[in-house]
Amino acid sequence: ICGARKVTDRMLYIAAKALAECVPAEVHARGQVFPHISAIRQVSHRIAVAVIEEAMRDGLATKISSDDAADLDSFVARKMYYPEYVPLIEKGTFSS
User: Fold this and answer.
1) How far is it, in rounded angstroms, from Cα 92 to Cα 80?
2) Residue 17 · residue 47 · CB < 8 Å
3) Residues 48, 76, 7, 35: what is their CA dihedral angle, to the nearest 10 degrees?
4) Which of 16, 33, 61, 82 could in theory staple to 56 by disulfide, Cβ–Cβ 3.0 to 4.6 A?
5) How far apart, in Å, are the Cα atoms of 80 and each of 54, 57, 64, 75, 96?
6) At what angle do helices 40-57 and 9-21 cross, to 10 degrees?
7) Distances (CA, A) of 39 to 23, 24, 42, 75, 94
8) Contact call for residues 35 and 21 (beta carbons, < 8 A)
């Protein structure tokens, strides 16, 4: 979403570090190395922000305006996909 045309080794490191920082200490103490799947949206958001910040430092973020750069949290949130499932059949209209 930032326009980077390549992923650097440092970006991969930053993504891994951001992921590790999303694991609460009590969860890590139980031996788990990944956050719970229920936190996937928050974790994905945090990783995206961290990687975009690195892309900006490297001058690789070609699609980030100065306004977006000033509030990356909101920028990433606006770009995230939110699945909305519409029922194929309206409730109460199907009879068996």
Assistant:
1) 33
2) no
3) 20
4) 61
5) 19, 22, 15, 9, 39
6) 150
7) 10, 11, 5, 19, 36
8) no
Residues counted in the chain:
96
Predicted TM-score (pTM) of this structure: 0.83
The answer to whether the beta carbons of residues 46 and 67 sit under 8 Å apart is no
DSSP string, 51-65: HHHHHHHTT--TT--
Render pLDDT for 59-91 as a digit per residue (tens, 0 to 9). 999 999 999 999 999 999 999 998 888 877 776
